[in-house]
Amino acid sequence: MRDVTVGLQGAVTNAVVSFRHHTVSIVALVSDQIRKGQQVIGFGFNSIGRFAQSGIIRERLKPRVLGVDPADLLFPDGSAFDPEALLRVAMRDEKPGGHGDRAGAVAALELAIWDLNAKLADEPAYVTIGRHFGYQQPTGTAAVYAAGGYYHGDSGMAGLREELAAYVDMGFDAFKIKVGGAPLQHDLERINTALEIAGDSSRLAVDANGRFGASEAATFGQAIAGLGLRWFEEPGDPLDFELLRGVASAYPGALATGENLFSCVDARNLVRYGGMRPGADIFQMDPGLSYGIGEYARMLDVLETYGHDRSQCFPHGGHLINLHVAVGLGLGGCEAYPGVFGPVGGYSRQCEIRDGQVKAPDAPGFGLETKQDLRPMLQQLGEGS
Ligand code: MG
Questions:
Q1: Distance 166 CA to ligand 1 centre (A)
Q2: What distance in angstroms lies between residue 208's CA and the mean position of ligand 1's atoms?
């Protein structure tokens, strides 16, 4: 087990944070198996827009996982690694609650096991994921929208218009822009500018990144209520479920949230107390932030128990791993952040984007090696150099 810390490219900001100093942990699980003359290595990474977790990975997770009998990490029939067994071992002696950064550290490791399993089976990860959870989605594509719509400083509305027009040229037909980082009137002008490009308001979502307090969130919701936007994302603090319930009771359109939840129990609290409306509101929990795909599947169970549908799920992230999760579990879709958050963020050239759909790569595993900007880093990590 090896890990490396990489920085994110693209110095963008939203209403709350700058991504300039953000880092990601890439974990490599080096097996002794050979496929097509190559040693099989599983790769995973934690959520984008956060920080690398090398301390937790090296000091807590690695000794636990490498310290057990390897057979304890396999399914009983020995066919592949059991992600749940890995999770149990990685979480030994960890108390419940207070999930914090360890949820991302464990996620990077758990995701690497899925990549490894899929490579050992010589199939794309979405096939492995779909089969494991009993969900078959043969098309290999997922709905995708272009997220961005940043504050462009000097270039203002022209910069925003240019940015979204570039997404149209790339094959996107739905968009999301940042709000909450400027006075209300200015944000409304930005929304109107974006609508000129998006055309239909159902193709434009707005994201406040948790910026508003209760009254600001209500005011903003009121101001955009008549627009019929695709969704209004993270109006307030991600854990302030009462605030969210308040917005949901007054705002007629869809709300979206969940990208800053760290566990299944967080997601359960969201559906219990956040006023989320079945068939309407959008869930954005991110496996890379919250213990990986096994925990994500448990969240889906909770959502479905409360009457929500997986078509309401669009995991945060904008990268190959969550594309495979969206395809494999038949989710509503995924997001993309064209041009920023590399080398881990973004899709590869194999991922054709057309009519708002993105195709997962056919390569074994998540196909992270198909990303030209990421491939050299993975190679180095795999070689231990
Ligand atoms: Mg967001």
A1: 20
A2: 7
Burial class (CB in 10 A: 0-12, 13-18, 19+), 59: exposed
pTM metric for this prediction: 0.97
C-alpha of residue 207 to centroid of ligand 1, in Å: 6
Nearest to 274 by CA among 250, 240, 308, 302: 240
For residue 329, the tally of other CB atoms under 10 A from its CB is 23
Q: What angle do CA 156, 159, 160 make, to 5 degrees?
A: 90
Q: Which one of the listed residues 119, 132, 176, 316 is annotated catalytic? A: 316
pLDDT in tens, 49-62: 999 999 999 999 99
Q: Is 152 a catalytic residue?
A: no
Q: Which tokens sit at 179?
A: 């709000």
pLDDT tens digits for range 216-238 = 999 999 999 999 999 999 999 99
CA separation for the pair 19, 7 (Å, rounded)? 9
Mark whether 316 is an active-site residue.
Answer: yes
Instruction: Please check whether residue 288 is in contact with residue 317, taking contact to mean a CB–CB distance below 8 angstroms.
Output: yes
What tokens were used for 116?
């490894």
Q: Which amino acid is at 218?
A: A
Query: Under 8 Å CB-to-CB from 25, ≥6 apart: which residues?
Result: 3, 4, 5, 45, 46, 52, 53, 54, 57, 104, 105, 108
Which phi and psi angles does 303 have, rounded to 5°?
A: -60, -45
Catalytic residue among 99, 132, 178, 371: 178
Amino acid type, 144 = V
Centre of ligand 1 to C-alpha 147, Å, is 9
Which DSSP string do the residues of 121-170 spell out, in sequence order? Answer: TTSBHHHHHHHHTT---TT-EEEEEEEE----GGGHHHHHHHHHHHHHHH
Å from CA of 49 to ligand 1 middle: 10
